[in-house]
Write a structure and sequence with these properties.
The protein is an alpha+beta fold and 1258 residues long. Helices cover 48% and strands 10% of the residues. The chain starts with a helix and ends in a 17-residue tail after the last helix.
Length: 1258
């Protein structure tokens, strides 16, 4: 049987003896390859298996080849399998379906499949030196996690108990994991799991605590296995615990199975009941798994009967048909090859070298001052604790990755979050497979140390605390220089070891733009293995010659669709010469964009360049800038031609791709960009690289399908500046004022890099919104009786599950809410029909107020989901409620769009614009609302406040937003300017066109008299190549001020505390100087120390008599000014320390609140009584008291009239300060008592409370 399988695999693998030859010179993008050695296409007479590979797949495969050999692979769970294994995995064994087991298949024709699987089972038992009478094995499981779950379901019942090593302490998800609030692993959902942990002081498993926990938890199964434990398991100790609890011992040796097979570490088979393992880690096989299980005699019970293991049938049934279908026969074939290799002496020597390398690696790390969890290693991996270095594993992992060292962050004992782990896990199997020995791993430790030190330097200069802040700082020029230097050193070392792609280094990444580079590599690498042994110089020459001969391969993907008479495709030869372009070093993508622009304009690129040169002077010193300006010039011309000749351009996918290519070309206009001039040096990290951004928790899932697609999309993306320069050229797509906010909204899931997937989705959504708005006009115009030029912008309340409720008084009624560019309309829902619409005007100056408000049943203020409208045209405020189960996004959206229209009309009223200018302002607001709707519906996000997509709302909310409106007003004033003769650029400076209004007209919307406008002037638009729009300058200035305001507000939010007692404590501490000063004055006024009080009295009297009191306030102000100036030169202010009061529970906080309210109520009552008594005195309710007060007032008036102010102040001071003087204390007390008695005898003026009539609508 073994001979038959070997012959079959040899025949199946014969196609790998010769290279597969892609049809390089075919026009098609597909390569046709047969499994037969010399066939390139399928022929009917010669049956063969045909495979189709696209360009993109070749790019991915070639990229993975390059990635395997360009750096250090230190992830302990990864390895390089042999060519023989890959040949078996890539054989025709993958084409057969074989549900069932050998000899018992559901499908026919499985003779050789049965032989292959049986051979694999036999070799598995031989590799681990197991007796077939005592052990069986299932080789069909697809991976390690499913294998473990298959064992659980086979041997346990739902909610049976499992114990395993805790995930943060080195365990694995497939062993169960849950937090205090969420069950993360499916194992913890279907079974009850309890972790055992390491002794954090030693780093070893705490077997004593494990035994105690098992006694309390009484598990049915205990797992002995880990993914990040550098020591050997004490299987004998765990076996004793299992015997005591009558539990099953499952040994998961996924990481160490290769070491066990070689016999270089103790085997778990002597103690375990079931053993699972993956096959692709240290075992060096394909990606699969195996489940070993005991069989045969288990024990003889007390009655003398033999008890046998019953694991085999249960586990086999759990695998199939329980949890998976047919096996992957190609994987089983590859595993059979790997298991045969595992029995060789060379394999044992390899595993011994793995252990020796890991020991040397750990020793080198310790010598460099690194702390290893458990102090060292006894297997293939090390776990480095970075806490003593003051940095976490996430940041170090990013730096290692940037220098081509693949390691993975990992939790260490004491970590509180899996997303901010404190360690790095590294292993030696992969590099040992490449031939690394002990001295080489000493060098690897040096590179690791250099990377950690670099990460610490980056962290020290990072301003924020988030991982994304660290990544932004890492992109700075001086750090990129250090990273490049270290990456080059890593590359030099790895090139000394065997790999088919060791010639590739960073220099090749600089030869061309990323798109072209990837296409070249995808085509070059599969051509001929002989290329792989060429020198670097030979490869460079080959690549350049190949690029020169096949330039057309570098053009962007072309769509076969054409629309009307406008062609966005480039079908030239691509060499850059035939079209007359004389700009050197033009990138292929930029050249393609220029050629397509010229074709749209029906002119040559040479003619475009002639027009450009006539208006712009060449700048040889700044080639990239000059090229970008030329690119902008051509793009603006082409876009103008498109949007003025077509109304459906947004629905054309070629147009969407063309505009996106414009932005890509703007980002990379030349083949090689200077380091400090390339927008690619901005933050270009995909969202998958910022998985630690939210460092307070973790998520194992994507939030949306769009987010998932963006994170796996590895194509080139667009930066902020490119989007800001190109997108506003199409007024429907973006506005100069809000373009940066629009970019932020589109890149929320990709960290400031715009993917075509998102851009295309946004434009398709915008097109849908505009079409819906046009289709809505007809049916609603008759119901609403709209005025001329009034456009419906949005409608809500038409879906029963999302009603809109109008609250007036205590009544509420559902209906349909409609927003136009002049008013809000509400139609109450009657019996099957809508009532006549009520109009709430936004265009006239009626002192309208629109703001968020609380609403609820019968006028109760309960839910923050309403918008209030108030004006002089309505008797009482009207509330529109937008019910929804979670949040208030509907309300926020309607609040913003209503305010946008209101602000636009107020802007018009303030500046007294003429009709054309008014319509341009309203058109800008309308297009902004359409864009806001498109982003909201396409990406399910809505930005408000400083990030809003509405221009006038943004200007009202930004600090200094009035400058934006003033700039816009000055730009609108140019709409009436008289055109002059001269160059188009001179005309543009003196006359602008109403671009938003004309765009709206072109899209099919009708406003007042816009048909009379001069469409020709749109050629100049509101953008000019190479110049910054004044609106953009004003916005940037306001945004910079906004950053300061937001930073200040962040400090305010940070110091806000909850609880009355806590706030009182903070206030007392802040007012301590005032309170202390008042206390000292009170101490002096109480005459407890007569000497000090007398000195203070004499000095104060002298100051008053000599007129020094007028200098008191100026002196205080000068002293404060000097203190502030001196303080500004010193270190930043330290945190203000306040001793917090004891924590109180909810009941105590309620009691405190009640006491505070009672005290406030008492103060108000006392104040009211004082006022009522004063009223009684003034109105002579008690004549005797009134007469005395009148006489007193006359006396005081006489004193004020004849005495000087200085003497009055002195008199008041002496009276107040000497009241507690020993000579006056007794008489003062007697007079105060008489005064209080007199006050008590004064009656309060009468008060009658009248109940107000409820005039609210019912």
């Amino acid at each position: 049987m073994a001979m038959a399988i070997a012959m079959a695999l040899r025949r199946l693998s014969s196609s790998f003896d010769k290279p597969l030859r892609p049809a390089l010179f075919k026009s098609t993008s597909l390569y046709y390859m047969s499994s037969l050695p010399d066939e390139a296409v399928y022929e009917k007479e010669k049956p063969g298996v045909t495979r189709l590979l696209t360009h993109k797949l070749l790019i991915l495969l070639s990229s993975r080849k390059l990635d395997n050999g360009r750096g250090f692979e230190l992830i302990p769970s990864e390895n390089f399998t042999s060519v023989s294994v890959m040949q078996a995995v890539g054989s025709v064994m993958t084409n057969k379906y074989s549900e069932g087991y050998p000899g018992a298949r559901y499908y026919g024709g499985n003779e050789y499949i049965d032989m292959a699987e049986s051979l694999c089972q036999k070799r598995a038992l031989e590799a681990f030196r197991l007796d077939p009478a005592k052990w069986g094995v299932n080789v069909q499981s697809l991976s390690g996690s499913p294998a473990n779950f298959q064992v659980y379901t086979a041997l346990l019942k739902p909610h049976d108990r499992i114990m395993a090593l805790d995930l943060p302490h080195g365990g694995h998800l497939s062993h169960g994991y849950q937090t205090d609030t969420k069950k993360i692993s499916a194992v913890s959902i279907f079974f009850e799991t309890m972790p055992y942990r390491l002794n954090e002081s030693t780093g070893y498993i705490d077997y004593d605590q494990l035994e105690k926990s098992a006694t309390l938890f009484r598990p049915k199964l205990i797992v002995a296995g880990a993914s990040a434990y550098a020591r050997l398991y004490d299987y004998a100790r765990i076996r004793k615990v299992c015997d005591k609890q009558k539990a099953i011992l499952l040994a998961d040796m996924a990481h160490i199975s290769g070491l066990v097979a070689a016999g270089v570490i103790p085997s778990p088979f002597e103690y375990a009941d079931v053993v699972t393992t993956t096959t692709h880690k240290s075992l060096r096989g394909p990606r699969g798994a195996m489940i070993f299980f005991r069989k045969g005699l288990k024990e003889v019970n007390k009655q003398g009967k033999e008890v046998f293991y019953d694991y085999e049938d249960k586990i086999n049934q759990a695998v199939f048909p329980g949890l998976q279908g047919g096996p992957h026969n190609h994987t089983i074939a590859g595993l059979a090859v790997a298991l045969k290799q595992a029995t060789t002496l060379e394999y044992k020597a390899y595993q011994e070298q793995v252990l020796s390398n890991c020991s040397k690696f750990a020793q080198s790390l310790v010598e460099k001052g690194y702390e290893l969890v458990s102090g060292g290693t006894e297997n293939h991996l090390v776990l480095v604790n970075l806490k003593n270095k003051g940095i976490d594993g996430s940041r170090v992992e990013k730096v290692l990755e940037s220098v081509h060292i693949a390691a993975n962050k990992n939790t260490v004992p004491g970590d509180v979050s899996a997303m901010v782990p404190g360690g790095i896990r590294m292993g030696t199997p992969a590099l040992t497979s490449r031939g690394f020995v002990e001295e080489d791993f000493a060098k690897v430790a040096h590179f690791f140390d250099a990377s950690v030190k670099l990460a610490m330097k980056i962290k020290a200069e990072t301003k924020g605390t988030k991982l994304k802040d660290f990544l932004v700082t890492m992109q700075s020029t001086h750090f990129q220089s250090e990273i490049s230097k270290l990456r080059h050193e890593v590359s030099r070392l790895q090139m000394s070891f065997s790999t088919c792609w060791s010639w590739m280094d960073d220099r090749w990444h600089q030869l061309m733009d990323p798109v072209s580079r990837m296409r070249v590599l995808a085509l070059l690498l599969p051509i001929n293995p002989a290329n792989l042994v060429r020198t670097r110089g030979e490869m460079e020459t080959m690549m350049k010659n190949f690029m020169k001969s096949h330039q057309t391969l570098f053009n962007p993907t072309k769509s076969s669709n054409t629309n009307k008479n406008i062609n966005y495709q480039h079908d030239g030869d691509g060499d850059g010469d035939g079209d007359g372009s004389t700009i050197p070093s033009l990138s292929p993508l930029a050249h393609s964009v220029l050629s397509r622009s010229a074709k749209i304009l029906a002119v040559s690129v040479q003619e475009l360049q002639r027009r450009f040169d006539a208006e712009h002077e060449a700048d040889s010193q700044q080639l990239v800038k000059h090229t970008r300006i030329f690119l902008e010039f051509c793009c603006y011309q082409a876009l103008h031609h498109v949007i003025t000749n077509r109304s459906d351009y947004l629905s054309d996918k070629d147009f969407r791709r063309f505009t996106y290519d414009m932005m890509l070309a703007w980002d990379s206009p030349t083949l090689v960009l200077p380091v400090n001039d390339s927008p690619q040096n901005e933050t270009s990290i995909s969202s998958s690289e910022q998985q630690g951004e939210d460092e307070d928790g973790w998520s194992l899932f994507y939030s949306t399908t769009t987010s998932m697609a963006v994170q796996v999309d590895d194509t080139i993306t667009v930066g902020r500046e490119a989007f800001a320069r190109i997108a506003p050229a199409c007024p429907a797509v973006a506005d100069v004022i809000t373009v940066h906010n629009l970019f932020d909204s589109l890149t929320t899931s990709s960290d400031s890099r715009l993917h075509f997937l998102i851009y295309d989705k946004y434009l398709r959504s915008l097109d849908k919104i505009i079409r819906t708005a046009k289709n809505t006009q007809g049916p609603l115009i008759s119901n609403l009786q709209l005025a001329e030029g009034e456009i419906i912008l949005d409608v809500d309340g038409t879906v029963p599950i999302q009603p809109v409720l109008q609250h007036i008084g205590i009544s509420a009624w559902p209906g349909r809410l409609t927003l136009t560019n002049h008013a809000i309309y509400f139609e109450s829902l009657g019996v099957g029909l809508y009532d006549k619409a009520v109009i709430y005007d936004l265009a006239s100056d009626m002192k309208q107020v629109i703001k968020p408000e609380l609403t609820g049943p019968l006028g109760a203020r309960l839910f923050d989901k309403a918008v209030m409208y108030k004006s002089t045209s309505v008797a009482e405020p009207v509330y529109f409620e937008f019910p929804e189960f979670k949040g208030n996004s509907r309300r926020d959206y309607w609040l913003d769009v209503c305010l946008e229209i209101l602000h636009a009309h107020r802007f018009i009223q303030k500046n007294n614009f003429n009709e054309t200018q008014q319509l341009e302002v309203l058109a800008r607001a309308i297009l902004g609302i359409f864009r806001c709707r498109a982003v909201r519906e396409a990406l399910c996000c809505f930005s408000s406040h400083y990030k809003t997509l509405l221009a006038f709302k943004l200007a009202e909310s930004l600090p200094g937003g009035d400058m934006i409106l003033e700039t816009l007003s000055s730009r609108l004033a140019l709409l009436n300017a008289t055109p002059v003769s001269g160059s188009p650029r001179g005309k543009q400076q003196l006359r602008l066109s109403p671009v938003a209004l004309l765009t709206l007209c072109q899209l099919g919307f009708t406003l007042q008299k816009e048909a009379n406008l001069d469409v020709e002037v749109l050629a100049f638009g509101d953008l000019w190549a190479g110049e910054t729009n004044p609106l953009e300058i004003a916005v940037k200035q306001s945004v910079s001020d906004t950053g300061k305001a937001e930073a200040a507000q962040a400090t305010v939010d940070k110091v806000k505390v909850e609880g009355i007692d806590t706030n009182v404590a903070v206030m007392k501490e802040l007012l301590f100087p005032v309170i202390e000063s008042a206390g000292r004055l009170h101490h002096l006024a109480s005459w407890e120390d007569p000497f000090k009080s007398m000195v203070f009295l004499v000095l104060s009297c002298c100051a008053i008599l000599w007129g020094w009191t007028r200098y008191i306030l100026p002196s205080i102000f000068v002293w404060c000014a000097v203190l502030m100036l001196v303080r500004s030169k010193k270190m930043p202010l330290e945190a203000f320390r306040v001793t917090a009061p004891p924590n109180k529970n909810a009941v105590e906080r309620l009691l405190t609140l009640q006491e505070a309210i009672t005290e406030v109520e008492g103060l108000i009552q006392t104040a009211n009584i004082v006022l009522l008594k004063l009223r009684a005195i003034l109105l002579a309710v008690l004549p005797q008291a009134t007469e005395r007060v009148a006489l007193l007032l006359i006396l005081v008036a006489a004193v004020l009239a004849f005495a000087s102010l200085q003497h009055l102040i002195l008199l008041v001071f002496l009276e107040a300060f000497t009241r507690e003087m020993p000579y006056r204390k007794e008489s003062s007390g007697r007079w105060l008592r008489r005064l209080r008695e007199w006050w008590v005898r004064i009656p309060a003026a009468p008060v009658e409370l009248i109940k107000q009539d409820d005039k609210k609508r019912k």
